[in-house]
Amino acid sequence: MKYILLAIITIITPITLLAQNLVVTLTANNNNDTIKICKNKAIEFIANASINGEPVNAEFSWDFDDGTIINKSSTNTINHAFSKGGSYITMVKAVYNDYYAYSKITVLVGNPPSFSRYKTSIPESQTGICLGESVTLNLPTNDTTLFYKPITTHTELIEQSLFNKEWTSFVRLKTFDNKNITTGAEIKSVTIKMDHENSKDVKITLACPNNKEIVLKDYSTNEGYMMGLPSSKGFGTLYNYTFIENGNNTINNTTLNQNDTVLPAGNYKTEQSFSELIGCPINGDWTIKVSSQGTANEGYAIEFSLNLDNSILEQSKWEYNQTYDLKHAVWVGKGVSATSEGECKVTPQEYDVTRYNFSINDNFNCYHDTTIYITVEKPTFEGVGDSTTFIGDEVNFNSTTSWGNNYIWIFGDKTPNENINPAPHAYYDKGVFKIIFQAESAFGCIDRDTQNIEIVPRPLEIKEVNIFTPNQDGQNDVFTFFNKDESFLESGGLTKMPANISSIKGKIYNSYGQTVYKWDEIIPAVFGWDGTVDNKGNRDCPPGTYYYDIIVYGKDGNNIKRSGTIYLYREK
């Protein structure tokens, strides 16, 4: 996704400080008037310094307001492109001998539309749509207003050491043309984030753009507080110390707890009044200096904030509007209908992911676009796995189609179709069956998935039996080689053939060779012999040893032939 933005550049009257005869002018793309430019397109900034109309070889410092700062450059020409939307003021500071002057250009880089407001007619629960289904794509785009907010805080990338030296930082104000500090109350506070082993060795000063300076905190001989929590192994814990005209605390007086060893974070009264800075121009560099006269590795500083009164900040506000041409916005992709006010209908033409591109121009003729992806999802279902499926096993067929709303299952074994989901089903014959699954979306789009399932007989098994007790106690009351619950396929009762037996022959006889029961049908054999003559239940056979011969043919193509003895026991 790429966004192409814009910039309006306005030349603003140069700010000349200290030396009224040093002047620096700034142009962009050789134009001294408003220009329009889109994101990431380089702007050529040219600064020219002169005294009494004569060019001089000044030293230039560039501040593009987007985090890019070039200090003390001998070149007067810089190419720069803005990579993010926002409002910026590019300022150049020219220094010649002991004189300096500022000039600036306002750069407006428009934000892209809020493409995150993209909507479709696809329900949130779906991960895709049915092939052939139409989807509404809607990307409403609202105009935007961008406000400029002065940057009044400078933060170092890492903590700066205060080991027997001075830390200097500045914030550069740019929006207060021809405005000076008129009362001390217009400077609300100054905040330093730092730590130090001994407050008496710290001096903090504030200088305005014309080099007027006041002391916020001076060296002392009787303080002895730690500022923050220094560490002998590197950075400690840095505290915010804020200096205001009427602070609640003054260092080393009765408003602080004399038993404290650490100077608490909070507000402190300035040693010199902000009124000393009346007459300072507001635009330019406001510089903080934190000096340490100690000899130990005593501390670090990282941040400086200059806080102006809201009445001053309100004077610096400005804004601009950016509009987008929805009437001529365009959607591009397979199966796109006409676009109207950022909305269109699309009908993807194939399975998988289809890409749709939305493009729009703004009122500065800059191009913005984004890409939306629509997935066409094949209907799919679970149930046909890698494991063996035996005759009589219940298979739980289940749709995995996110857009499915209604279903039809055709199982391929001449049983009735089902329109439920999940759809449990059992097969009673071996073979390969074609399952046709039909899904219908909430919008009436229909698609099908076809899979094959192979059904095989369960391996033939018979159990070993050598005694049975037909005493009606519920245990071993019949003689059978089979477990009827495992052998029969249940479908509304024991009405189906056993799952693994294709045919059976056998007989039971006594020690005299007399046949007391025989079978050549599967169901009677599975239910077994009840210990009566011919299995009729009216003539009990006497207890004793009996003999059997049996041969079972399985649906898996195997057979089992067995002969043996069985003891009939009747006592309760």
Number of strands: 43
**Strand order of the biggest β-sheet:** 3-1-10-9-6-7
Note the gap between the termini. 87 Å
The percent range for helix content is under 10%
Shape: elongated
Mean pLDDT: 85
The chain-level structural class is: mainly beta
Describe the main β-sheet briefly. 6 strands, antiparallel
Q: Ranges with pLDDT <50 over ≥5 residues?
A: 1-19, 490-495
Q: State the oligomer.
A: single chain
Q: How much of the residues is beta strand, in percent?
A: over 45%
Q: How many DSSP helices? A: 3
Radius of gyration: 46 Å
Short overview:
The protein is mainly β and 572 residues long.
Describe the structure.
This protein has 572 residues and is mainly β. Helices cover 3% and strands 47% of the residues. It has three helices and 43 strands. The strands form twelve sheets. The protein has a six-stranded antiparallel sheet, with no helix packed on it. A hairpin with a 2-residue loop joins strand 20 and strand 21. The chain is elongated and about 140 Å long. Mean pLDDT is 85; it is low at 1-19 and 490-495.
Please outline the helices and strands.
Blueprint lengths: L5 E12 L4 E7 L6 E4 L4 E9 L2 E2 L3 E5 L5 E5 L3 E4 L5 E11 L2 E11 L9 E2 L14 E4 L5 E4 L5 E9 L4 E8 L13 E10 L5 E6 L5 E5 L8 E2 L1 E3 L2 E4 L1 E6 L17 E2 L2 E4 L14 E9 L6 E10 L1 H6 L3 E4 L7 E3 L10 E4 L5 E10 L5 E10 L4 E2 L6 E2 L3 E6 L6 E5 L12 E4 L4 E10 L5 E11 L10 E2 L15 H4 L13 E9 L5 E5 L2 H6 L16 E11 L4 E10 L4
Parallel strand pairs: 19-23, 22-24, 33-38, 39-43
Antiparallel strand pairs: 1-3, 1-10, 2-4, 4-5, 4-8, 6-7, 6-9, 9-10, 11-12, 12-29, 13-27, 14-26, 15-25, 16-22, 16-26, 17-18, 17-25, 20-21, 28-30, 30-31, 32-34, 34-36, 35-37, 37-38, 40-41, 40-42, 42-43
